[in-house]
Design brief:
Blueprint (H helix, E strand, L loop, with lengths): L5 E10 L5 H9 L18 E4 L3 E7 L2 E11 L10 H16 L6 E7 L6 H15 L7 E6 L1 H6 L4 H7 L2 H9 L4 E3 L8 H17 L13
Parallel strand pairs: 1-4, 1-5, 5-6, 6-7
Antiparallel strand pairs: 2-4, 3-4
Pfam family, one: AIG1
Organism: Nyctibius grandis (Great potoo)
GO molecular function: GTP binding
Length: 221
């Protein structure tokens, strides 16, 4: 809480190159803070923090409407085309402590593409990386963001049909994070109404977690 009439949620986006990680961050912020474009190599090489304007009409607590402010930390991809795993991990760990060290992290968003299958090795590498960043309680503070959901829809998959046909690899990952997942339509996510739906789902995850935050003051050790 920043003020009695305002709530801030702190998020970090993690994922592979070209999953739409930076674009997802921009959608959550309702801005274009983060560089995002198609590239044969990893675009993001350092962490950067974006903060939304005050958003109304999203959350109420104790019968009163609160303004919401979203803070998103964009990160280099892992694996990265120009940085080692250790370089990415240390860069992200340092940025998390710097930006969220006092307030804590509400959610890490693992960004995956809904239009591409999730391989076992990719899942295991992603889980290992998040565990190294967040520690043993990572499952409580991680949600999956499935981007390019518009392409899955174009292929004839509703969300229900998509999950019914999903691989055991993806389903086990979703199960491990207590089914905290969101489909993000890359064509519609910047529309105000669509953004509000996504933010409400994220807030619901935070609420299910009793508004707890992951402390990060000691994340540089």
């Amino acid at each position: 809480m920043a003020e009695s009439n305002e709530m801030i949620i702190n998020l970090v986006v993690l994922g592979r190159t070209q999953t739409g990680k930076s674009a997802a961050g921009n959608s959550l912020l309702g801005s274009s803070d983060f560089e995002s474009h198609c590239s044969p190599s990893s675009v993001t090489t350092c962490c950067s923090l974006g903060c939304s304007c005050r958003i109304s009409g999203i959350i109420r607590r104790n019968g009163c409407e609160l303004a919401l402010r979203v803070r998103v930390l964009d990160t280099p991809s892992y694996p990265h085309s120009g940085l080692s795993k250790e370089q990415v991990r240390d860069t992200v760990r340092s940025a998390l402590a710097h930006h969220f060290g006092e307030e804590g992290l509400h959610l890490a968003l693992l960004v995956l593409r809904a239009d591409l299958p999730l391989c076992l090795d990719e899942r295991d590498h992603a889980i290992q990386f998040i565990q190294e960043l967040l520690g043993p309680t990572w499952k409580d503070f991680t949600a999956v963001l499935l981007t390019h959901a518009d392409k899955a829809e174009e292929a004839g998959f509703s969300e229900e049909a998509y999950l019914h046909s999903a691989s055991s690899t993806l389903l086990s990952l979703l199960s491990s994070v207590q089914h905290k997942y969101i489909f993000l339509d890359n064509q519609k996510s910047i529309i105000k109404e669509e953004r509000a739906i996504v933010l409400r789902k994220l807030l619901n995850f935070v609420r299910q977690n009793n508004y707890q935050v992951l402390p990060l003051k000691h994340s540089k050790e």
